[in-house]
Amino acid sequence: MRTALRTCPICDAVCGLRLTLDDADRVVDVRGDTEDPFSRGHLCPKGASLGALDGDPDRLTRPLVREGDGFREASWEEAFRRVEEGLAPVLAEHGRDAAAVYFGNPTFHTMAGFVYRQPLTQALGSRNTYSASTIDQMPKHVATGHLFGDPFAFAVPDLDRTDHLLVIGANPLESHGSLCAAPDFRGRLTALRRRGGRLVVVDPRRTRTARFADEHVAVRPGTDVVLLLAMLHVLFAEGRTVDPDSLGFPVAGLDRLREVVAAFPPTLAERHCGVAAEVVARLARDLAAARTAAVYTRIGTSTAEFGTPVQWLVDVLNTVTGNMDRPGGVMFTRTAALEVFRSPEPFTTGRWRSRVRGLPEVLGELPVATLADEMTTPGEGRVRALVCVGGNLVLSAPGGPRLGEALAGLDFMVAVDPYLNETTRHAHVILPPPRIVQSAHYDFLMQIVTVRNYTRFSPRAVPLGPDQRSEAEILARLTLIAAGAGAAADPAALDEQIVGHVLAAGASIPGSPFEGRDVERLAAELDGEDGPERFLDALLRLGPYGLSLARLREHPHGLDLGPLEPRLKELLATPSGRVELAPDALVADLDRLRDRLAAPPPELLLVGRRQLRSNNSWLHNTPGLRGGGNRCTLHVHPDDAARLGLGERARLRSAAGELVVPVEVTDAVMPGVVSLPHGWGHAGGRQAVALDDPGQNANAVTDATVLDALSGTAVFNGVPVELAPA
Prior knowledge:
Layout: E1 2-7, E2 16-21, E3 27-32, H1 45-48, H2 50-54, E4 64-67, E5 70-73, H3 76-94, E6 99-103, H4 111-115, H5 117-124, E7 129-131, H6 133-136, H7 138-148, E8 156-157, E9 164-168, H8 172-175, H9 185-194, E10 198-202, H10 208-212, E11 215-217, H11 224-237, E12 251-252, H12 254-261, H13 266-273, H14 277-289, E13 294-297, H15 299-302, H16 307-320, E14 330-331, H17 371-376, E15 385-389, H18 393-396, H19 400-408, E16 412-416, E17 429-431, E18 453-455, H20 471-482, H21 491-508, H22 519-525, H23 531-542, H24 549-554, E19 559-562, H25 568-571, E20 579-580, H26 584-598, E21 605-607, E22 634-636, H27 638-644, E23 649-653, E24 658-665, E25 673-675, H28 688-692, E26 719-720, E27 722-725
Parallel strand pairs: 6-7, 6-15, 9-10, 9-13, 10-11, 12-20, 15-16, 16-17, 21-25, 22-24
Antiparallel strand pairs: 1-2, 2-3, 4-5, 4-17, 8-14, 18-19, 21-26, 22-25, 23-24, 23-27
């Protein structure tokens, strides 16, 4: 037996784990790492099941290539050759835009997924780039891009010092925090209340977090934007906003903001949100009166029709109450590695548009809600090939069943995935990455949203076998094939090119540790077993703390880099050099809101549901995570169940499709709201446990034509539905 330390890669919480491996390199025990200065031994059911996930017998161990209607195992050389033979003709005959690439959620949690994303996209040269961002988080990018000029300037609640936390449309006690990395979220909220603080949750469901809170306010799905506008109305009308000169950073648009919110009094919120006007006013007053306060929102509002305006207004609330970039309010993490994802170019969207629906590009990608359109609509530029990296589109994207039909009609598809699942079964080649413990780990992206400055590196715990390829090599070789270099090209050359770009940039930055130095000599000094590790070492050396990969290896439990500190001034990148409180695009989008409010409200609305023992579509094959409420049922309020005469099953219908689902009657949802968890509907793959209880695919009733206009994000929460006995 031996012990290995590693950061859990399953969700956003970046908890430290202590793994016990037997002589056969199997993970036989998982414990929380009590010496990790950030997670301090915290362990959730998902993390505790990492051994079972890592050793899942249904994980693919060798490449699969399509043979007739099925698959057969192939060598890596044959698999990469088949990729070249399938992709190259499409590009040559139909052009670069005839190929698309999709990056799924897991790619945001791996080193290779971060390092090769941009090179692979550039090598493919297609405007048809898609990712999970337009399934869940793009509204946040767009809002912060307009507010701060930086689409990655994510303010996180300073949980350990705040006195008042207002949570809107988030359920961190089950999600463990999303775009807010906070191990042991429950423990941190318990500490908040012990020091006399207050937790308020606004949500149409009485979630695990809402049950824990001091107060739960039920709100009609999709109307959070009206609630926030009404709260700002109260603050301005009653003179409860802070003096802008006291903020510590410059702001613009305050007068325009005041004019905008004047049209949204609490009585309007009562009519549309189902929240009493006096409650709306009290929420605003309590926020303004608190010594320190933070407003936090996530999936519930980000995946609604006005997701971007909500993200904007949350940060506006934090600003006008004096809680932006302030200890105890919301703050910005300072990462250990150089933040290479920040662009010097002004933030803009719509540099190109999708071929079929004319939807605007955001951050170099198009909305995944239109991917099926691009695959099925005839004409020049139709998508005929797909590179799918770590994504189960059929279960995670809007209009999933239609997307599955579209995938089946492609000329060629290659998937990088450990499973034969609902999406990869349509591929012509499947390239499986190795086990979790066979890859080194560093959270490039999650560490930009930690609620305390912190860093940790996890080396691989188990070496690769002779017939395995690292995720880095797989993505590097795909990049070279897309670039036309061929299946036999050496991936090491690409790694040196990527690292060389970083070193050359560092050598040209005044005041940089690499300023004026020779790039070849710098490259010779770098530490690391492969390209991603050398890339990380370069970014750490260029980072604000003067660290290195060797230093992180000396501290395998992680490094505490101190509490969050004000840094908004250095992040501001708007043309005005100010925080834009009333950006033109966001103010203009309120016309769309007014049109929506003028229409009769739907009788019944569908929302999603987080589950403690689940994570999107990829943990349902782990036996230890089945049970404990991890079931695919439709939550229906008792009044609605009685009114509609529902029994054990019901027919759920929307403009996009219909499902027959098991009914679970509960007052955890407000009347007029039903809830179905996402990520279910398993079929046609090789995942025995998941197929034993497949559930229903909620995205069969998600309308891919209804989007948050500014970000292109699909609407998963607040979907108008009809319900009848089945």
